[in-house]
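Researcher: Next entry in the queue.
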Amino acid sequence: MTSKHKKILSYILKTAIVVFAFWFIYRKLVHNKNIAEFKALLKEIPREEVALVMGIIFGLMLLNWGLEAVKWRRLVSRIEVISLWKSIESVFCGLTWAVFTPNRLGEYGGRVFFLMPKRRIMGVVAMAVGNIGQMVLTNIFGAIALIAFIYRYVHLDYRLMYALFILGAAFCLFYIIFFFNIKWLNGILLSIKFTRKYKKFYSILARYSKLELLKILLFCLSRNLVFNLQYLILFYWLVPEVHIIDVLMMINIMFFVQSTLPSLDLFDIGVRSMTASYFFSFVTKHDVAVIACTACVWLMNIIIPAILGSYFVFKLNFFGNNQRSQ
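Model: Structure for this entry, 326 residues:
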């Protein structure tokens, strides 16, 4: 394929990705009952107040994905040095891909195409390390929140509760040990004859020290705190009678449940809304406000970044070259 043909094909692919993403977003927003309820609820609140709160939530969204960009840059530093701005571009581009792919798989492609071609598969592995770190915290906080919920609202026999506490502690300990020894995966893959020939791609797993993994986990924790803060602000604003501890408990259960279900980013709002509606029903009867808070966070953290990322899709280099660009 000539250079000219590559450019034409690359442009067609980029345009198709953006058009496809916008089509998905448009269809979901137009027919989304939760967004309609959110808009109806905001009509009853002074515009200045709405603008202030939405501005804060938007700012936290930028902080959230900015932290992810710094984390991504650190993750790939073992295979390629990229600038912070390129890292930001790749993160937002990945979010555009993520909205129409199952379980956000497109996000991997959206990011690694900003790397040199020969390092893209290793980039996928590096990104997986970061996603595992986020999953570890989601599962740990989710398990703790779920046990607290059962203790408070289900009232099991005390022996079952003790067993649940022990099981929860073992569950959390397993994830912590697994993450800080992620290089074990490298050893497991090397022991399998079929995967041994691909060791140059996953050998990066052995390059992360425990200190580096701790730093990655701290970035994951920071993002988790930003997510929680967004929900806390919205619930304090729209459902002020719900106690802060209850909000944190329900939010982390929601994250936990959502992480266990296969879905598309665009349809996550349905999962989030149903989960939030069920668990928050134990602490408040304002179902519309609960769904409105969930819809707002989804809109701010998924849809708006995906729209912003469409600009960076056109900066992708599908066919690449072997020149390092900062």
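Model: DSSP finds 14 helices and no strands in the chain.
Researcher: Noted, moving on.
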